[in-house]
Amino acid sequence: MAISSVLGYPRIGAEREWKKALEAFWSGKLEEEEFHGKLKEIRLAHLRKQQAKGIDLIAVNDFSYYDHVLDTAVMFGIVPKRFEYEGGAVPLSVYYGMARGTKDAPACEMTKWFNTNYHYIVPELDGAEPALTGNKPLAAYREAKAELGIEGKPVLLGPLTFLKLSKGYSAADTDAWLERLLPLYAQVLRELEQEGVQWVQLDEPILATALTDEDVERLRKVCYTLAEAAPGLNLMLQTYFESVERYSDIVALPVKGIGLDFVHGSAGNVKSIEAHGFPADKVLGAGIVDGRGIWKSSLRDKAALLRKIGAYVPNDRLMVQSSCSLLHVPVTTEYETELPAQLKGALAFADEKLDELVLLTKAAVSGEASIASELKQCDDALHALESLEERVRADIRQEVAAVSQTNPERALPFAERHPIQQKQWQLPLFPTTTIGSFPQSADVRKARQLWRKGEWNDERYGAFIREQIDTWIRLQEEIGLDVLVHGEFERTDMVEFFGEKLAGFAFTKNGWVQSYGSRCVKPPVIYGDVAFREAMTVEETKYAQSRTQRPVKGMLTGPITIMNWSFVREDIPREQIAYQLAYALRQEVEALESAGIGMIQVDEPAVREGLPLKEKDQAEYLAWAVKAFRMTTCTVRDTTQIHTHMCYCEFHDMIASIEAMDADVISIETSRSHGELIHSFEENTYKMGIGLGVYDIHSPRVPRVEEMAAMIDRALRVLDPRLFWINPDCGLKTRGKEETVDSLRNMVEATRLAREKY
Ligand code: GLN
Ligand code: ZN
Q1: Where residue 758 falls among pLDDT bands split at 50, 70, 90?
Q2: Entry's SUPFAM superfamilies (predicted)?
Q3: Per-residue pLDDT for 520 more than 70?
Q4: Where do the H-state alpha helices sit in 60-135?
Q5: Among the residues of 516-614, which ranges form H helices?
Q6: Rounded to the nearest whole angstrom, what is the distance from the C-alpha of residue 670 to the centroid of ligand 1?
Q7: CA 367, CA 377: separation in Å to the nearest integer?
Q8: How far, in Å, from the CA of 492 to the mean position of ligand 2?
Q9: Which of 122, 285, 419, 630 has the most CB atoms around its CB within 10 Å?
């Protein structure tokens, strides 16, 4: 009989209880013992919910005190020397030290989990002496069984993915590392087997990326070793986020189950099954309910997909699953009392997805007629969504189609615009500027709250924002910056701010998802055609410009970043959404220009995030992403200088695309890989304006003049001095006022020294 199964459930809690507990513990408001108790309560509540919904096979050990990759490293005793760990059980102080840094030791690096916005802690293998420090999956299994009678399925991050995500070893040592880790994995599984565990979910999402023959060989080794170590246990080799490469190799492995994603990469996986069948001795974990999107599944379509799969895999070897862990979606739509009913009715967060899994399992077992009324309800709900008038706006569709048919291009190429802009702006060598935001003090946040609650009227709040702008325009002049910004005091968040002003967006009350550690984000929902309504940034920018003779740079978030940091509709291609955003933002660019703003920055920090996992799909994505940026910015006058900013990730393999964006100036975060990035700009002979961030804004430390002067010297060894700008790494929103002013003063001084030399 088919059964339902979940790959993992969100940790944060419906009301972010988990986040609150972690932060209370960190700040000393919660004692360690109470903290453990609180987390146990949350963990059990999540299991209880899945049990009550009727999920047959519930994942355990998906819960974490911070991050599951960190959990795995810690379980194997892989703790960097700087945390002075001496073996045995890893204390919470060490665990959180690795995640967040201590007074003496910087935190471990954090990076994005595949193509999601979840960040994991990167294990550092150099110098590590792996040894088992505990068996967390076993503890989780025992707890679920003892407390709730749940026969859980422990989840374990697989060795190949673990290694691939780790750093601090050379590729040549991969096999040696595998040799060291496998016995530990074997031990964990053996203990689970002895305990009577039936299924273990071995997560190997790396199988959805391009695999070399060597990797497949390693995978074989992993599966043979582990199957042999615990023959009484059923291993579910779980993949997600894309279709698998090397399907035939994978289904031939000696494991009991293979979990495939039939949402992301569905086409590939279905094709593979159709072409090669599915082995008769294995269970298929069919991931048919989207673990990443927020929309209701069409139960009818999913049931049809199950039927199709059913032609190759009979019911008794079928698990109906989510496509990946539900970690990536909010907890429940229950709190969304303020959304239009037609929109709310079409949403499914984690809890609603549990219901879908149960229903679809029922359909697989007893036929679709057994869920006839639910099928009908689901059809109605999806219909209702389509009936919203925001969904399709003929006017917008027409305009965007017309605009996207032309090649968005500035009137003159950079080489010809550049001298015109030089003449217009008369900037000194190495112009100094910042990335946009200035510190959002408690006062600023307080004022916004009062205004949102209606205690302050628009006038009062507007006056407050103008005061902030005044203060910072004066400060910037006094510090001696060349190109000023208004400071973004009116914005909480660079996506939310624009989403609230554009048509086509909705905002949830409680749609939080974990981004990293206790940090959660609440992405807006793009559910309708995106359209410009009225100027969004002109008033503040114009005001700032009226207070100074120096140029003030307008500040917008780019189309790709807004899209990648939102939950988006699925009825039209992402490319179309990007063009709609671009067309709307172009109108803002034009409004700023008409208001006398001649420098406009369009931030695109999140371009990299949308990059498809499969290399073959990447060029296409980059092509339309670049096009969307150009569409946003191409209609301005020759004298108008377009800036962009990127940060948070590696760009070294994207220089050609960055160049194709055709911005006059790009400022780019470099603190993570300074040398490397400069090198790639050198190789690619990037020839437009560029500001490599000269200091890391993530730290409260005020950088010394000499440090920044050295950075500048280094950059100028490869970059053209006439095109070089000087700026911090990123926006200064989270910094304190004094440290910001001091840092910028030092930056301007370092610039003065550089100007003397060149
Ligand atoms: N202009 C934005 C700011 O300064 C850019 C933020 C970002 O790059 N993430 O806050
Ligand atoms: Zn940035």
Answers
A1: confident
A2: UROD/MetE-like
A3: yes
A4: 68-75, 92-100
A5: 538-546, 559-564, 574-594
A6: 14
A7: 17
A8: 15
A9: 285
Count Cβ atoms within 10 A of the Cβ of residue 403 and give its class: 0-12 exposed, 13-18 middle, 19 or more buried: middle
Q: Which residue has the higher pLDDT, 748 or 675?
A: 748
Instruction: Say which residue the tokens 């008369």 belong to.
Output: 426
Q: Which residues are annotated as a binding site for 5-methyltetrahydropteroyltri-L-glutamate?
A: 16-19, 112, 519-520, 565, 609
Distance CA 245, CA 260 (A): 11
Q: Mean pLDDT throughout 364-389?
A: 97
Q: Could you tell which of 433, 434, 488 is best to mutate to test the pocket of ligand 1, judged by most ligand atoms within 8 Å of the CB?
A: 488
Say yes or no to pLDDT of 421 above 90: yes
**Judging by beta carbons within 10 Å of its beta carbon (0-12, 13-18, 19+), is residue 363 exposed, middle or buried?**
buried
Cα–Cα distance between 45 and 350 in angstroms, integer?
A: 14
For residue 430 the two structure tokens come to: 């190495």
| Token reading at 372 | 């006839």
Q: Is the distance from CB of 185 to CB of 193 less than 8 angstroms?
A: no
User: Chain-wide mean pLDDT for the chain?
Assistant: 95
Q: What is the pLDDT of residue 684?
A: 62
Query: Are the C-beta atoms of residues 532 and 28 closer than 8 Å to each other?
Result: no
191 residue type, one letter = E
DSSP classification of residue 260? E
Helices (H), 27-171: 32-53, 68-75, 92-100, 136-148, 159-165
pLDDT for residue 675? 56
According to the model, what pLDDT value does residue 265 have? 83
**Contacts for 514 with CB less than 8 Å, ≥ 6 apart:** 10, 11, 12, 118, 327, 520
d(CA 145, CA 139) in angstroms, rounded, equals: 10
- The residues that are catalytic are 698
- Look at ligand 1, atom 3, and give the residue with the nearest C-alpha: 731
Instruction: Say if CB 555 and CB 599 are below 8 A apart.
Output: no
Enter the DSSP assignment of 429: S
Task: Tell me what the mean pLDDT of segment 618-642 comes to.
Answer: 98
* Residue 434 CA, closest ligand 1 atom number: 4
The Cα 225–Cα 190 span in angstroms is 12
Alpha-carbon distance of 360 to 55, in angstroms, equals 11
User: Is residue 59 within a helix (H) or strand (E), and if so which, with residue range?
Assistant: strand 59-60
Question: Other CB atoms closer than 10 Å to residue 329's CB: what's the count?
Answer: 26
Question: Quick check: CB of 605 below 6 Å from ligand 1?
Answer: yes
- Give the number of other Cβ atoms within 10 Å of residue 212's Cβ: 10
Kindly identify the ligand whose nearest atom is closest to the C-alpha of 435: 1
Q: Is 108 in the pocket of ligand 1 (CB under 6 A)?
A: no
Contact assessment for residue 500 and residue 452, using Cβ atoms and an 8 Å cutoff: no
Q: Which of 142, 259, 238 is CA-nearest to residue 197?
A: 142
pLDDT tens track for 282-297: 999 999 999 999 999 9
ipTM passes above 0.95: yes
pLDDT reading at 507 higher than 90: yes
**Cα–Cα distances in angstroms (integers) from residue 648 to residues 136, 669, 695, 696, 731, in the given order:** 32, 7, 14, 11, 12
Question: What φ, ψ does residue 554 adopt, rounded to 5°?
Answer: -70, 160
* Tens of pLDDT, residues 391-408: 999 999 999 999 999 999
User: In angstroms, rounded to a whole number, what is the distance separating the alpha carbons of residues 659 and 687?
Assistant: 8
And the tokens for 319? 């698990």
Tell me: pLDDT of 477 over 60: yes
- For 170-206, the pLDDT digits (tens) are 999 999 999 999 999 999 999 999 999 999 999 999 9
| pLDDT at residue 161 is higher than 60 | yes
Mean pLDDT to the nearest integer, 227-241 = 97
CA atoms within 13 A on the CB side of 361: 26
Query: Could you tell which of 434, 435, 537, 561 is best to mutate to test the pocket of ligand 1, judged by most ligand atoms within 8 Å of the CB?
Result: 435
Q: 487 in ligand 1 pocket by Cβ < 6 Å?
A: no
Tokens 């000087």, located at residue = 726
